[in-house]
TrEMBL record:
Signal peptide: none annotated. Residues 4-222 form the NAD-dependent epimerase/dehydratase domain. This is NAD(P)-dependent oxidoreductase. It comes from Cohnella endophytica. PANTHER family: BIFUNCTIONAL POLYMYXIN RESISTANCE PROTEIN ARNA, NAD(P)-BINDING DOMAIN-CONTAINING PROTEIN. InterPro entries: Epimerase_deHydtase, Lipid_A_modif_metabolic_enz, NAD(P)-bd_dom_sf.
């Protein structure tokens, strides 16, 4: 039985990931600054900014899923958000290297592209946005995710570590669908109407854990469709008319952030859409 260390195990995605790992027979250790009565595995309270604590917590792990982070550029100072997210990711990767752990899955974000939290809205260079699009963050959170990805790529290059950085879209749990407003495209235009059901995010995370792909991979983890009840081509015309290049037609409500690479590399595909919950909206 493999032992999987999950940082941020008390968080929104972490609790779901741990439940699925347990159901599939893994031994799991949750590593977080706080414990949770929702987590049914060994829990360690760890300050991920302290390298010694991280090394001690990861002893005996066969692989790591690193989900711990301040999840948005709000509620803390910019310096705190950036330093917390970058230092924790670096310490996890450095500890993995020291302990001989060869597989790390990093929770990144589509915020690394820069669109979602930018103080001044701007449009992507091209659509659909795939992993070849430049990362151009304009605030501390997106920057922290971009730097964490660079750190993962460096450890992979130096040590041969297998590192997957998953650029999750906005993660939606089943009970949260009732609060969505797909009929108001103005609400989601900065994030390009991209989202992912938490159950699909969990399956993508476990697929990344099991993947035998060598090296470093950054992957968009998003639903197949957009979070809008209008055709994608129309909302792009209305909200992002300055986009210079459209790489193929977006049929119907097709997602504007591409998940094709994740499907190819992980053998994963999303199963859920907000349309399945229309009666609750």
């Amino acid at each position: 039985m493999q032992t999987i260390a999950v940082t941020g195990g008390s968080g929104k995605l972490g609790t779901w990931v741990i439940e699925e790992l347990i159901s599939e027979g893994y031994r799991v250790v949750s590593i977080d600054e706080k414990s949770s009565d929702r987590v049914r595995c060994k829990q360690l309270k760890v300050n991920l900014s302290d390298f010694g604590q991280v090394v001690g917590a990861l002893q005996g792990a066969d692989a790591i899923i690193h989900l711990a982070a301040i999840p948005a550029p709000i509620g803390f100072t910019n310096e705190t958000i950036f330093s917390n997210n970058v230092r924790s990711a670096y310490n996890v990767l450095e500890a993995a290297s020291a302990l001989g752990i060869r597989k790390v899955v990093i929770g990144s974000s589509e915020s690394a592209y820069g669109f979602c939290w930018s103080p001044e809205p701007f449009s992507p260079d091209f659509v659909p946005v795939d992993e070849s699009h430049p990362l151009v963050p304009r605030e501390c959170y997106g920057l922290s995710k971009a730097v964490a990805e660079q750190s993962g790529e460096m450890f992979s290059r130096r040590d041969g570590m297998r590192v997957m950085a998953l650029r999750y879209a906005m993660i939606v749990a089943p009970h949260e669908y009732k609060g969505l407003t797909p009929g108001k495209p103005e609400r989601y235009y900065k994030m390009l109407w991209s989202y992912v059901d938490i159950r699909d995010a969990v399956q993508a995370t476990l697929a990344a854990l099991r993947s035998e792909a060598e090296g470093f991979h950054a992957l968009n983890i998003a639903a197949d469709d957009s979070l809008c009840d209008q055709p994608s081509e129309r909302i792009l015309d209305d909200y992002h008319p300055e986009i210079a290049e459209r790489r193929g037609k977006l049929d119907g409500r097709a997602g504007i952030v591409s998940n094709e690479k994740a499907k190819r590399v992980l053998g994963w595909k999303p199963s859920y859409s907000w349309e399945q919950y229309k009666e609750t909206l």
